Every structure is written in C-alpha cells, then in structure tokens.
Amino acid sequence: DHRHVQLSGDPNDILKTWGAIDNFSYTLGENLTLRNIASYADFKHHYRWDLDGSRGAFNEFISPDDVNSADINTLTEELQLQGQALDGGLKFVLGGYYERTHAQGTIIANSLFIEDILQQYQQEKTSWAPFAQGTYELVQGVNLTLGARYTSDKTAGTAVLRQGAVCLAALVDNTHDAANANSAVT
To answer: Could you tell me if 105 and 118 are in contact, meaning their C-beta atoms sit under 8 angstroms apart?
Structure first.
C-alpha cells in the first residue's frame, strides 16, 4: 500500500531529460567525404524537499511546480571534410566544431527565521573550433600525424541571492555578473 506521512511540504524530485544525435555522411567523390555530427540535449530538474522531515515549516525547498532548479540545453555541431590525397598516402580531416549551452535555474526556500530565500542563476556558454589533421605514410607501417586546432570559449552568467528575515528586513540581496573568454591553439 501507499505510505502516508505528515510533512509541512509536498516533496517531489523530478528529472526530465532527452537528446537527439545526427551523424550524416555524404560521399563527394572517390576520395572525399562530407560528414556532419549534430546533437541537442535538454535537462530539467525540479524538486521540493522538506529537509527537517516534520510537520513544522522549519527548513524547506518550496519551489512551485513550474520553477526548475536546473533547465539546461546544449546544441553541438561538427562539420568535417574527410579525404585522401597523394595516391592514398595522405589521409586528412578539415573541420569546425560549435557548441552552445544555456543553463538557468531557480531555487526558492524558507527556513525558521530566514524566510523567502531565493537563488537564481543564468549562464550562456559558446565554443567554436576550426581544426585540421593529416596522417602521411612515411614508409610502410610508419605514419606521421600532425594536427592543429584553434578553440575559442566564452562564458557569461548572472547569479542572484536574496534572503529576508521574518519578511521584515533583507539580510542578503546580491546579484553577481561574471564573464570569461579563453582561446588557444593546440
């Protein structure tokens, strides 16, 4: 049978995730192939917890059903030109990679004397990278592989934390913005 407990909140923990991947190849000629690899992933997490496990509202996460603590989606795209040259002695790949991730979430909680706790975040990340790689057969059974990639990453986000005591005074009311950009040749 179902168990019945008495809590001050209505606890739940719900994860929803899905994704799709496409891997497509098209032969352009005897020694040349166009390849595309694309994906999309989505992740959502909602929870409501009664942390003290009692009938009193002492310490709880109380997010409404339509508020996710995590809502994340990622899109990737990689396009490649694969081929052979020099009578098959050189095998090469030229391409580019792109990724975009968007993440956001909200957590609403209350505690005995610190009520109305709100934590929110939002983050956007993009990355792109052109690349090239070649493998040349020096002598039978001995190959030389060289490759290069330039990667550029950018991330920006905002975080908010608000806490109020007994609905009278704001204890904490902070918003933080941050951004970071990196690039490198490897």
So the answer is: no
Integer Cα distance of 96 and 112 in angstroms: 53
Q: Which residues pair with 136 in a beta bridge?
A: 90, 144
**Distance (Å, rounded) from C-alpha 130 to C-alpha 139?**
29
Do 138 and 119 form a contact (C-beta atoms < 8 A)? Answer: no
Could you tell me if 165 and 173 are in contact, meaning their C-beta atoms sit under 8 angstroms apart? no
pTM of the model: 0.81
Q: Which residue has the tokens 């993440």?
A: 103
Pull the structure tokens for residue 26: 């098209």
β-strand pairing of 90-111 with 70-85: antiparallel
Residues 164, 114: contact at Cβ < 8 Å?
yes
99 exposed, middle or buried (CB, 10 Å; 0-12, 13-18, 19+)? middle
What residues contact 142, with CB distance under 8 A and at least 6 apart?
none
Token pair belonging to 148: 């290069």
Tell me which amino acid residue 93 is.
V
What's the token pair of residue 14?
Answer: 């719900």
pLDDT per residue as tens digits for the range 105-122: 999 888 876 777 889 999
Residues, the chain, total?
A: 186
Backbone φ/ψ region at 166: left (φ over 0), alpha (ψ -120 to 50), beta: left
